[in-house]
Amino acid sequence: DQLAAMPHMEVDAFLKALAGPRPPHIIDLRSHNLATQAGHVPNAHLTEYKALAQSLVGIDKDYPIVTICACPQDAGAVHAAYSLQRQGYRNAMPLRGGFAAWQAAQ
């Protein structure tokens, strides 16, 4: 199964990338209400799954993209990254542990 085998970005690599010269484009798939209550990753784009393509206007196909959700097993982020890869965004990856992992690393 391609979804189960999808490589994830680990939170330590994500934090390094955020501080680096080419920080990833971050797609936060959580609901607006959840993001408002729990907080959000700085510079993340709160995006519904059905609006993925519109959120990437102007983003090069080889630019790093990290998808984040608050789902069990990162399911939403995995599906979004897989969909983006199929659209040619080769460097789309889900964040392992999602928003909770990022929050715990702060």
Question: How would you describe this structure to a colleague?
Answer:
A four-stranded parallel β-sheet has the order 2-1-3-4, covered by helices on one side. It is α/β, with parallel strands linked by helices. The protein is 37% helix and 12% strand. It is globular, with a radius of gyration of 12 Å. Strand 3 (65-68), helix 4 and strand 4 (92-94) form a beta-alpha-beta unit. The mean pLDDT is 93. The protein starts with 10 loop residues before the first helix and ends with a helix.
Which helices and strands appear, and what pairs or packs with what?
Layout: H1 11-19, E1 25-28, H2 32-38, E2 45-46, H3 52-55, E3 65-68, H4 75-86, E4 92-94, H5 98-104
Parallel strand pairs: 1-2, 1-3, 3-4
Q: Main sheet?
A: 4 strands, parallel
Q: Which spans of ≥5 residues are poorly predicted at pLDDT below 50?
A: none
Q: If helices are DSSP runs of H or I spanning 4 or more residues, what is the number of helices?
A: 5
User: Per DSSP, what share of the residues sits in E-state strands of 2 or more residues?
Assistant: 5-15%
| DSSP E strands, number | 4
One letter per element, helices H and strands E, the order comes to: HEHEHEHEH
Average pLDDT level: 93
Q: What overall geometry do the principal axes of the alpha carbons give?
A: globular
